[in-house]
Amino acid sequence: MCKWHEPQHHTADFELSRMESLLVKESPLLLPLNKEKTVYDGFITVQERDFRIRILLPPDHQLKLAKLHCCWQLKQLLCGYEHIVKQRLHHSPDLVSFVLELKTVLEVALKCRPECRSIPPPQYYSQLIIEMEDLGWDKLVSIDTEFRTLRLRAEDSSGRQHVVTVKLKPKHPVEAPWCSADLPVPLAMTWTPQSSLGHVHTQFLLLLESLAEFWAVLDEIDEKTWVLEPEKPSRADTMRRIAIANNVSIKVEVDTRHPKMLPECCLLGAEHVVTPLRNKLNANMHLWNPDCSILQNLRDVLEIEFPSPATHEKSSFSAECGICYAYRLESAIPDQVCNDPRCGQPFHQACLYEWLRGLPSSRQSFNIVFGECPYCSKPITVKMSTQKP
């Protein structure tokens, strides 16, 4: 009879060995304590945190009769999830599957309970206080309840106010913090284990000063012209769309490294209005003077005066789209204009594209759609919209 049962024992042993190897792969810190593989003790790791657990299996390895012994942190984390754990014990085919399911439950629990995240050692907080005292508490705009994310203020030589967000790592200052700010260039910080918040602030100030001329150029444009886009410019924006006349504007992209050099320009409006301006730009480009501001150069090269808040109301340049009857469509404003001088109706690119695409008479060549103006039926074209139809 032993010979009949021997293959079954071999099969069972093989299955246990297979499961053990899979378990070691998924949870290398959870190991069997006995030959029968009915007692497992160790740790399961979730989001870089280790939780102590002991799993007791019956002799037949039926999971539904298993018992779990957890550390107090794990018990606290699983509070309210007991029914799910019990359900997984009943339905999981083997221990490996159950451990994977348990990890999923713990990940959800950790996301729902941020207070369960690992707490830095006391040295972290004492180091943070020392660094803030050296920097000056007046530089602190805010700090979160976990003392991980700080917002520090800085003022450049022109009096502009800036804020840098610093997210500290649990092993601060050994680990470099994550820093971000409203800038048109990447915020790259040099960091060593001896660095501090003061080093971050100093490097931030140096970067601000390197961008001072760039911001001065844009500040003049924002102050002395009607900027159509962006609606509320941030310090990171390098583009300005400036009103020239009703349904006519110029889009300039300012170079952060050479802010007074000739920027990338794009004239927008009806062709009969834009073409003369484009010709002047091309003919007078040699007159560009890097010692003057971009705004003054644009006046000289285009031979125009820009409407300003002192001379015009912005509503004069806020014509609604002739299709959706709105000025702003999400962040876009009308930038397509009928070329017929008697019409000149503006449209959003997305609106005109959808309108022409729905006309049986329209045709498409590459990325250009040809059709008729919704108002005057004169020929009109539009590039394919970048928005999904």
UniProtKB/TrEMBL annotation:
The keyword Hydrolase does not apply. Its main location: cytoplasm. CDD domains: DRWD-C_FANCL, DRWD-N_FANCL, ELF_FANCL, RING-CH-C4HC3_FANCL. The keyword Transferase applies. Its EC number is 2.3.2.27. It is found in: Cytoplasm; Nucleus. Keywords: Cytoplasm, DNA damage, DNA repair, Metal-binding, Nucleus, Transferase, Ubl conjugation, Ubl conjugation pathway, Zinc, Zinc-finger. Signal peptide: none annotated. This is E3 ubiquitin-protein ligase FANCL.
